[in-house]
Amino acid sequence: MILGPTEYCTIHCVFNQLEMLNSNSRPDKHSIVTIMTNHIRDVELKEFIQDSIDECFDTLELDSHNNKCEFSKNFALCMENKAQRNCDDWDENLSVNKINSASFQDGTNQQDKRKGY
Q1: What is the average per-residue pLDDT within 93-114?
Q2: CB–CB of 21/15 below 8 Å?
Q3: Do 57 and 74 touch, CB atoms closer than 8 A?
Q4: Model confidence at 88: pLDDT above 60
Q5: Contacts of 66 (CB under 8 A, 6+ apart)
Q6: 68, 24 in Cβ contact below 8 A?
Q7: Residues 12, 72: contact at Cβ < 8 Å?
Q8: d(CA 22, CA 115)
Q9: DSSP state string for the chain
Q10: How far is Cα 35 from Cα 56, in angstroms, rounded to an integer?
Q11: So what's the pLDDT on residue 105?
Q12: CB of 50 within 8 A of CB of 37?
């Protein structure tokens, strides 16, 4: 799927609504780490998320030409790519999410009751 400028700014708006932006209106690493790891008790998962955030920021900060919406989109995609490479059941979860999304659109949303999702 190819994202356009509208989707870039939608992702950026989510970061803004979650108060995860810095004074330059870019995603704030500390805020993201805090929000994404605050309630995680599994040490290994917490470390994976922290490391992924650090790696994505290190990569993205090298390209200062990204505007705030592009930076947000690239960060979200980077995190998705890291999860996809490191989660054995990624394809299974993606299929379940598509089904749940379709059910939601039909008004018959059934929540995924598996632990950890």
Answers
A1: 44
A2: yes
A3: no
A4: yes
A5: 60, 74
A6: yes
A7: yes
A8: 32
A9: ----HHHHHHHHHHHHHTT-B-TTSSB-HHHHHHHHHTT---HHHHHHHHHHHHHHHHHHHT-TT--HHHHHHHHHHHHHHHHHHH-TTHHHHHHHHHHHHHHHHHT------STT-
A10: 16
A11: 44
A12: yes
What single-letter amino acid sits at 90? W
* Span 58-76, pLDDT tens digits: 999 887 677 888 899 999 9
Asked whether 50 and 33 are in contact (CB, 8 A), the reply is: yes
Query: Could you give the angle at the alpha carbon of 96 between the alpha carbons of 90 and 99, nearest 5°?
Result: 145
Q: Cα(45)–Cα(20) distance, rounded to whole angstroms?
A: 21
Q: Which of 61, 62, 33 is nearest to 48 (CA)?
A: 33
Length of the chain: 117
- In the block, tokens 């900060």 appear at 61
Q: What is the mean pLDDT of the chain?
A: 77
